Amino acid sequence: MDSTDSKTPLDVVAAVTGDPDPAEPPERHAHIIVIGGGLAGVAAAVRFRLKGWDDFLILERGDDVGGTWRDNTYPGAACDVPSHLYSYSFALNPDWTRSFSEQTEIQDYIRKVAHRYDIRRRHVFGCEVTDARWNDAAGRWELRTSKGRFTAAILVGAWGALCEPALPDIPGLDTFGGPIFHSARWSHEADLTGKKVAVIGTGASAVQIVPAIADQVAELRVYQRTAPWILPRLERRYTKAERLAFRRLPFYRRLVRSVLYWAHEAQVVGLARRPMLLKPVERLSRAKLRYEVRDPEVRRRLTPDYRLGCKRILLSNSYYPAFNREHVRLVTTRIDKVGVDAIATADGGLHDTDAIILATGFQVTDSPTYRKIFGRHGRSLCEVFDDVGRKCYKGTAVAGFPNLFILVGPNTGLGHNSMIFMIECQVNYLVDAVETMRRRRIRSVEVRADAQDRFSRTLQDKLSRSVWNTGRCSSWYMDKHGANTTMWPGFSYEFRQVTRTFDLDAYHTSHAETP
Ligand code: NAP
Q1: Are 404 and 372 in contact (CB under 8 A)?
Q2: Which end of the chain is more exposed for a tag (fewer CB within 10 A), N or C?
């Protein structure tokens, strides 16, 4: 790939089609276009830079890198994977201040990595992709965006899994008169001080928001549909001596990371292979609930009725104790409707409400982006997934979509370890694919349907033994076909093994014409 080192993204012009229309910017071409500048997009961009490639662009609809960590600015936002594990292997951070990092520190880290590897200039910020279509005759992707047209030989889908807010279909939600916003779109203008606030949802976001705003509000009602399993969060601030050791002793940094990695990796045995092993952990969680919540009735309603791990296990030391406070109420009756200034529940209750926080999760298995990506037959990812389910080869390639590499694609989710590990595995696979294509003068690669089917069957067979597939809870891990197309069914190092090299024999290829 050519180096265009001194140019900005807007200068990377390979083709100007026809007479330039003053109203529309000229079409721009890059060998690789990445959609999304979150953790995955940044990881890919850094690897490209380290390879000496510069003919790539990252189209990012926001105004900064960071993706979900840029967007989730709600009070209490933090990661539940330990800091020294939740970082890129190529950019270990000696400066983490806590064992579990807060959103601001993670966002700062991602920014610093982008700066250190000088990839910001490859970004086109404020660039929303409206659609991307594979042109088989030209052998390239053609994109329409809010910043004009782009073309690329290779398209990398780093649009993320936890970024599109899922809004509940509660009648009357749009008639509510006060501030109402999703946890991932926190309204910092809305002053919750002294207000009657409702939090709908009790997932990973809600258990952080509830204790963080409890002091500030006059009344807090938490609307729970399903009780989550909660475990202690081994959180603490690092001492000066520890931080000095992380900074001065790279070996110590790596050692801590390895210990954390293997300690987390071991948890998958219970989650994916032998759910019975999780029984003692359930006992620990119940004991924590008994110890932390005084009222036996509230305790009963906070007790989950499904096997631990079926939904994401949450970590918090402050969520349960919040319910000991007079003004924090747990509501477990179904919400009937929302009015201008109140929430009505199915038991006839009417709760005065000044502000509503929707901590209702994300569109994961039905991402709206799927409606924007069109493959070889002119069908969108959404149409194809609707027909055959979210089948995907190694979480990365989809039959019918040549030269498309999805990062954090179907079945790459983990319930036990760092997603950054999975992202780096996929980036290895992508980089090897690009190198293989260049070496062999291949114009396009498209995963074979039989290879994809075989891979999906093996995956689903393994998942059938996992706690996520017990059918005892409803979770966003399952798609509308009832298949678990979110989680990786084993050790994360097994994913590294299957993505170590690009396996060309699983792909159809077309070759560049020789002049
Ligand atoms: P979530 O885990 O999907 O939780 C959504 C919550 O909203 C659930 O309690 C759900 O109830 C409830 N809900 C959804 N629709 C509803 C409706 N119509 N009426 C009433 N309740 C409704 O979403 P999240 O908390 O934003 O977390 C999503 C994921 O983001 C996490 O699993 C995690 O991977 C990641 N995350 C991580 C952290 C962290 O590292 N600490 C923090 C935040 C997010 P049901 O359970 O009954 O469906």
Answers
A1: no
A2: C
